[in-house]
Amino acid sequence: MTYYIFNLAPGDGPRAAELLRVRRLDVGAEDPHRDALAPGDLVLVYLAAPERTFIARAELGPGVPGGVSLTHVEEWDPPVPMSAVLSRIDRSAGARADFEVGVVRITADEYETALAVAAERAAAAERSVDRSQASQ
């Protein structure tokens, strides 16, 4: 199993939501990881600058013309800022927030850190909603 970030262009938020809904992501013909992507690989869906946020995680399904299909899609609300993930990982190997390619290979630790931050943010958002409802 391999881990990747799918790096979507700035302003692609609405398009990303549609791609997640139809469970598909595009992969450019020139992307260096295109031929390595395989069913079962795990991905984080990332909106590039200025957003710099993770909006979902998914598992890759079979390839489709021009991209890959997705299974087990989990959209993140609230989204996860890249800065929150970077603050928890060893950046000496070159982890960063901005990428030149659409698909970026990452380590299992980087992937798991993003999942942990997403879970913490979701729990905090839930607590905030509970407190808000209790005060009404």
In short:
The protein is of the alpha+beta class. It contains three helices and six strands, in the order βαββββαβα.
Written account of the structure:
- There is one protein chain.
- This protein is of the alpha+beta class and about 140 residues long.
- The chain has helices at about 15-20, 80-85, 110-135; strands at about 5-10, 25, 40-45, 55-65, 65-80, 105.
- The longest helix is centred in the last third of the chain and has 27 residues, at about 110-135.
- The chain has a single domain, classed as Roll (ph1033 like fold).
- Strands 2-5-4-3-1-6 form a six-stranded mixed β-sheet.
- It is built from three helices and six strands; from the N terminus they run βαββββαβα.
- The relative contact order is 0.20.
- It starts with a strand and ends with a helix.
List keywords for this structure.
alpha+beta; ph1033 like fold; six-stranded mixed sheet; 3 helices; 6 strands; 30% helix
The biggest beta sheet, please?
A: 6 strands, mixed
How would the global form be characterised? globular
Tally of domains? 1
Query: Mean of the pLDDT scores?
Result: 89
Number of strands: 6
Note the gap between the termini: 47 Å
Are there runs of 5+ residues with pLDDT below 50, and where? none
- H/E series, N to C? EHEEEEHEH
What percent of the residues sit in helical stretches (DSSP H or I)?
25-40%
Secondary structure blueprint with pairings:
Elements (H helix, E strand, L loop, with lengths): L2 E6 L4 H9 L2 E3 L15 E6 L5 E12 L2 E15 H5 L16 E4 L1 H27 L2
Parallel strand pairs: 1-3
Antiparallel strand pairs: 1-6, 2-5, 3-4, 4-5
